[in-house]
Amino acid sequence: MSEKWVYLFEEGNAQMRDLLGGKGANLAEMTNIGLPVPPGFTITTRACVYYMEKGGFPTGMWEQTLEALGKVEERMGKKLGDPKNPLLVSVRSGAKFSMPGMMDTVLNLGLNDESIKGLIEQTNNPRFAWDAYRRFVMMFGNIVLGIERRKFEDLMDKMKEEKGVTQDIELTAEDLEKLTQQYKELVKGEKGFDFPQEPLEQLRMAIEAVFKSWNNPRAIAYREKEKIPHNLGTAVNVQSMVFGNMGEDSGTGVAFTRDVATGEKRIYGEFLFNAQGEDVVAGIRTPLKIEDLEERMPEIHDQFVRICEILENHYRDVMDIEFTIERGKLYILQCRVGKRTAQAAIKIAVDMAKEGLISKEEAVMRVDPADLDQLLHRQIDPRAEVKVLAKGVAASPGAAVGKVVFEAHKAAEWGKNGEKVILVRPETNPDDIVGMLASQGILTARGGMTSHAAVVARGFGIPAVVGCEAIRIDEERNLFSVNESVVKEGDVITIDGSTGRVILGEAPLIEPRLTDEVRELLSWADSFRKLGVRANADTPADAQKAFDFGAEGVGLCRTEHMFFGEERVPYVQKMILAETTEEREEALEKLLPFQREDFIGIFKAMQGKPVVIRLIDPPLHEFLPRYEMLLEEVLTLRLSDPDSPQLAEKERLLQRVNQLRELNPMLGLRGCRLGILYPEIVKMQVRAIFEAAARLAKQNFPVHPEVMIPLVGHVNELRYLRSILEEVAKEVLEREGVDIEYHFGTMIEVPRAALTSDEIAKEADFYSFGTNDLTQTVFGFSRDDAEGKFIAPYLDKGILPHNPFEVLDREGVGKLMKMCVDDARKVNPNIVIGICGEHGGEPESVKLCHEIGLDYVSCSPMRVPIARLAAAQANLKTEVFEDK
Amino acid sequence: MSEKWVYLFEEGNAQMRDLLGGKGANLAEMTNIGLPVPPGFTITTRACVYYMEKGGFPTGMWEQTLEALGKVEERMGKKLGDPKNPLLVSVRSGAKFSMPGMMDTVLNLGLNDESIKGLIEQTNNPRFAWDAYRRFVMMFGNIVLGIERRKFEDLMDKMKEEKGVTQDIELTAEDLEKLTQQYKELVKGEKGFDFPQEPLEQLRMAIEAVFKSWNNPRAIAYREKEKIPHNLGTAVNVQSMVFGNMGEDSGTGVAFTRDVATGEKRIYGEFLFNAQGEDVVAGIRTPLKIEDLEERMPEIHDQFVRICEILENHYRDVMDIEFTIERGKLYILQCRVGKRTAQAAIKIAVDMAKEGLISKEEAVMRVDPADLDQLLHRQIDPRAEVKVLAKGVAASPGAAVGKVVFEAHKAAEWGKNGEKVILVRPETNPDDIVGMLASQGILTARGGMTSHAAVVARGFGIPAVVGCEAIRIDEERNLFSVNESVVKEGDVITIDGSTGRVILGEAPLIEPRLTDEVRELLSWADSFRKLGVRANADTPADAQKAFDFGAEGVGLCRTEHMFFGEERVPYVQKMILAETTEEREEALEKLLPFQREDFIGIFKAMQGKPVVIRLIDPPLHEFLPRYEMLLEEVLTLRLSDPDSPQLAEKERLLQRVNQLRELNPMLGLRGCRLGILYPEIVKMQVRAIFEAAARLAKQNFPVHPEVMIPLVGHVNELRYLRSILEEVAKEVLEREGVDIEYHFGTMIEVPRAALTSDEIAKEADFYSFGTNDLTQTVFGFSRDDAEGKFIAPYLDKGILPHNPFEVLDREGVGKLMKMCVDDARKVNPNIVIGICGEHGGEPESVKLCHEIGLDYVSCSPMRVPIARLAAAQANLKTEVFEDK
Q1: Which residues, numbered 814 to 853 in chain B, qualify as contacts with chain A under a Cβ-Cβ cut-off of 8 Å?
Q2: pTM of the model
Q3: Which of A640, A777, A800 sits opposite B780 (nearest CB)?
């Protein structure tokens, strides 16, 4: 017996997407739950796959098609091609994954020079019938026979011209009959054969055309982009036609069972009386609301509302429904899960859980963590009218308003004076950091998601639009232009880092807030997750924000940022340039009170939750002027003003910077290596931490410092520094007479640390994976160089599936992390292990962290809610798919 | 019952080194094989450890000491302190590991104001007796009581002055008696108590002093340096004294059972009649040869020769023996395995194996691979008289003669003209490479074993002396000076990179050669090893040398060196600066013939053995001028000669170099990343390889090319390039109509490659560990920065046991390599795995490579013999210690 290639709608169900495609499966499901679906059947995706491989229908498929058609004819009491009472069908593609508009559809199939008579008789509407016929000829001619659509449209235009009318609707039945004749002649002229009159021949050809459309170039391109496999094939749905354009008791529309913009629980839809689906989409007439239906056809309205309820209850989700009313009878043509905005997604999930339609677990699983990201940044008020100058790459989310400044140092200066500025640069580089940090937003003309500007901006939560190639920056004249518009230094613009828009003037912004629904959803998420969520926070303000967003501690407080600041920099430089330990200690003594104050602020914000403080990490030369810049200054002075008193000083500085600079600073004298060579620096930091902690402890304020020693690769590094530093801690606590719970641990960010975890864990109370650096060392990628030079081509060529600096690399870095965790727990079961790389706020990576058994993730404050949700989903997914 | 703390010599054996120390164990062994050893006993190291911990003797130790002493007295027929017939003993330290001169010894113990009489009576030699007593008081006063030795010597000097004599020997018995009295008064004055007269009290105090000497500062420092654990403790040997200074029928000496300088089989020793051991060492009288003994005391001579034979046969090695003849009776005081020169070690091992004394396996195990290194470089003829100007760090072995040059570019120029030059620099940097390569040797004033100069020199086998701080370089005047000597540019010097000597003028050199013994030993080694040994060779000359030294293939041929060379550089730069693929291909087309010729030469030298050719690896900017240099030129031109036609060109070059340069070039656009972005470069290389191979194959010359794709971290990189490149290979072979066995593989040099070995091995025919880069990425150490900045302090502080760039890191890198090998073999059992990092020629690392199951190591040609020996030892060690 041959394989079953054809399924009547009654024979399928929603689970059969693989075989029947999404559309066919849903049509089957609706049919089976008793909804008024026009009868029809589905030819399987396997038939399509066979066709693509073998170039012909599989044995038995055509026979099964005819059999199914017979049953449909029976149910409809009509026959395909019948000159009295003809059945018309649509032939549509429908793949497993929605590929909107990518493949082909033929409507009104079954019309020919005979059956048109029946249709006229049936409908008593010759104009409708001829319009249907001429549309069918055009559609069939275009899609099945491959004749350019434009050629049909030209004939239509000529006809309108002859008749002196501008709208299709003004043409009479006779005009359309004539036009149909012309269309058929066009087909004959183009193809050399008559337009196929035999309905079964029409059907066969249409099915083949749909099969073939799976591999049309735009479908292939779409699948490439969406990473849909090419070997799935499409199903073909053959369904009885119903018509919304059979008069004022007919109509057609689309509806969502809830408002997918806001999430509100009300049916939201648009429809037109006496119209076809394409009229609604084309937007020629203003569509009506579902409420209008209630007035004109209250019974149909009630039936529709009931159907919406049935569908929502059945699918347990918001549904997107296409419907048609033919002469007072309602038909459901298609349904699928409705796409929704971020805001709506959250409200709908929470509401449905409260309604008991879905469980809280399901509600948590329903919201894409990326949606939260949208809600957590300032947005431009969508109601505002704005003048969009240009669009670039949306590189760091959020909107920002400020005065345009073209130089980083000026941005720093203006920013210091309380001006809100937008830094506009062709591209940025590490020298621009201070100016970038002082800006509300960043706009660059070059670069992509991984450019320096984009990476820094995301890192610091500064909105950024990058690679906005439409703007032409004239640095000499301090302006940029887009077409005719010119924006000068000091002019106000708005940028939207969530959409990439660059807007002239000040657009009204909406502050981000956690809505009640978000809070509720997150509280559910908290109850479902095992992973803790902490935040990376370097300042009291960041720590406060993190706490408000639900962070359960600080997972990474970078202390080097505490070395910047106008009052501090001179001491920092003095410390670095010191030629003796004493000189260095003197400068450090001045820096101590600043750091202590910072720590007090952060401890306060965290209210006794653990605060992981990382000791100084970057190479010292990062605190000094750049070598090339100094070299340029010195050379210029030597040639132009050799007697300048500055020269000697600059030369000395140049020499020192030259001594300090490194060929590969990422792998150089930094992290714990610095602490081992210059213990006085880290001793000062530890003193500041414990003095801050002691001061608060004396006021009975709970504190929980955790000292993190970075870049350890050998257990001896940790052992050496821990013993020196724990002594400092004990000294302070003893002197101050307080007793505080504290821990010492290390960052795991070089492979050797992970590989020798069974040694290192014996000396560490906690670990935190520094996956930014770990990714760099595991891949041997310098992020600064890789993202500008080869990550993009690697992604293009499919060599890497993701940028590993955004999504944690499961096979390499993840495998190493898992080994590290397992080895550590074997020798130190109480060790607390987290992650503080940027991956800690990325949902896929959070999932991986959950799977390998970390205790917590730590991410930027703004991403804490995302991490909370992602952590819950990771746990629910694990539980659900435990058997896999 | 109490622990056994004291062993009579009869009770111990050579295996008891842990408990009895090296000296005690050997004394026991000799006693038991019937050699004439003066009776005595050993107090265990455990007693010392107890003493150090508890501050007193363990219970029972003193009682056991007295008991053992009683037995010695019985055997000798004398009693300690007996006024008639006194026993004298020596009390010496003796630890498990020899610590020459680090701890203390007391001789002649048992003398006091009573027993001196007995000694006089026994010997009938008052002068001898009083000399013995005054020596004992001094030694005891100094070592046990802590009185400065100088104070005793002052008294001796005063006595000689009074007596108007200059030599000790000229003092009479009376003088010495008086001196003894003065010494005792000195003790009383210094300590407030009389010199201990009670012999047992003397013994107790001496034992305590020896225990304490384990922790004297110089002993601690020595153990730090030699990495001997501090908790071993020393044993104490108490032995009856015999005297070689009892007249002309007495004597004392040291001997080796073979000539430890040359390895010749003849007893080599020195002795003096009527003398004490210290007289031989002091070198006041010219010692006699063993042959002289034959004449004067033929029986003793024969007995001694017999004893030498017995000892060699018993210990199966060359022995270092101390002996004394007391009144015509021979005593053996100590024996240990004799230290020997490299040359002797090899000859002795080979000879003994041939004599059947040891097995060939043992012979192979007896030679330190480092010894081979000494023999494989040019040496300064040891017979020549040379003027040593200064000594620096011996950084790269071998001697070199040449004219002094102070600038790298000049060295390159002179070198090109056939001059032999020694490049002398304060220190070197990567810009100096070309000049360094053109030099016979390198001398720097600054830097250590890990400085740039040292590393590069070792890498290229160029002799180097670095950190020679005694030389003062005056770069402006083109000279250097050492004290009064001035060496100008063009003057000839000789440097010895094996000893660190800098010599004025041309010293005669001896060419290295593999002696017959070395060849024989290596051929035995070959039969015992499982690891293959290949060589790293970039040129036909290197390949030839490698072949001659026994390399079984080329494990790494770096192709980028083939881009240097005067005729090539312009095309290389054109290739890099090309703005289109076509331009680049044009330049590559010119380079192809050069590379092809190089490959032909290497294939020929290797005679069909496998040749692993690594495709281009370094970042392209390494082939262009340095950014800073260009910047300086451009700035200077801008200010001094803004209309210069060069300026625009330099600016363009500067811009391009700026685009190409990277923040962390080690982790940047290099290796396979280059090949993926610019496939035309690697396609040219593969074409050159296969055209070369095809040409030879047509002449029936066997060839075996293996193409190595560097820096792969993701299987897709390898898959992508392999498919492109294998196509090129097939094209060439098809066009040329030949069939050649070839392989494609990859270098494992980033952790991700090792971590995902189960994927990568499916696409690779072979792996080669690039442990230089793998060490960099596993540790997160940039070698260039680490070796100059923090490796040395890390070694000093004991944070790292070795420089991991010299000795492969077992716990981290080694563990990862093992995982990688195991995972690879699981999916591809035929994969061939080697190592081509510098570690491939370092014995410890070779051992690790053997243990983790590599197929071969590859090292510089000069190190091939070392690797052959080390590989054999690794295998023999594994076999011997299999059970551990």
Answers
A1: 815-816
A2: 0.83
A3: A777
